[in-house]
Amino acid sequence: MSLRRTPNPNRNHPLYCPYCAGEQLFPDEHTDFAWLCADCTRIFEVKYHGQDDPPNRPAPALSTAQALRRSLERAQNKNSNNHEEAR
What we know:
single chain, alpha+beta, three-stranded antiparallel β-sheet, 1 helix, 11% strand
């Protein structure tokens, strides 16, 4: 697994407590990632490190200009083939 970035405490806040499913969550001062559940009074941390690398990496996407050029070339080839068949 490659970590794409260091965890950021200002993103991916939890929607519910993992212990009691309570929804009254508040940031806690123990760490930058700590959350206090008002229902069960537990403190827990949430960190998002990134995603696992896929088993097979997809090919890089074409730029807009490259994709447009390829599309126009296909259309031009298709039109020239249709004109040859009509003869």
